[in-house]
Write a structure and sequence with these properties.
With about 300 residues, the protein is α/β, with parallel strands linked by helices. The protein is built from 11 helices and 13 strands.
Amino acid sequence: MRVGLLGLGRIGAFHAATLAAHPLVDELIVADPVRTSPYGRPGDPFESDAVVIATPTSTHAELIIKACERGIPAFCEKPVAGTVAETVKVLEAAEGGKVQIGFQRRFDPGYVAAALAVHGGELGDLHRVHMITADPAPPPAEYIPLSGGIFRDCHIHDFDILRWVTGREVVSVYARGANRGAAFFKEAGDVDTSAALLTLDDGTLVTLQGSRYNGAGYDVRMELAGTRRTQAVGLSPRAPLHTTEGPPSGEQPWPDFVTRFETAYRNEIDAFLTSDKSLCPIEDALAALYVAEAADLSLREGRPVEVAEVRR
């Protein structure tokens, strides 16, 4: 199989190594205006059997549509596009094509096990969920005005994995935020600390916390409490936590998202190359974006927002 890769930034370079090592990939064609890779040769990535898109957000929509018009399966890092309207247009233009969006948590062994436990009835009736996504340090200042805000940029992963693990839809969001660090967050209309209360369509309550300043390390966790059992994801010895009940594990905390989800990133590329259908279609990315839009509106207006308010 010949695979084209567009973009050789941090995650693109990781995908290049993964693709080059995959047994189904005979040739890797890479395209980046400023970077090169030892894992592939330069060329037109659309002269391939499949493409992987790891370019800046502003280019995603055009590249996804181009791949679909040529009948080439496409994997694209999130988001599909910068706005709901653009995402809907891509969804319509890509109808019939195979497009997989990069929500890698779906392919992490811990989240997979949690989903199996929920759907297998091991937790009993699910009553509450808690999620945390906290970065050890903020992104560069110049990135924040282009990010879409913490709920679209960061917590959209939480919204996607919440839907995927529980099999339920989010119907309402009440979001809050604070600025406890650098001024550039507030100047861009964003926050560096976040919290939200979400309600699922069966009444289950979900709490969410986030931070751009979790100095202890990269912290991503999910707790699902049911009538029979509570299931936790992310409580490995490398979780950046200290407990008063015992000594620290001695293992280095997760330093960043690439290290934490290395296995998941490899698994999602393997799924893209080997599965006949997309395991994270554009429709799911749009559903998560609707929740992010509702959270952002709630943050700005200081009120609970029904997700139906932002649907188009």
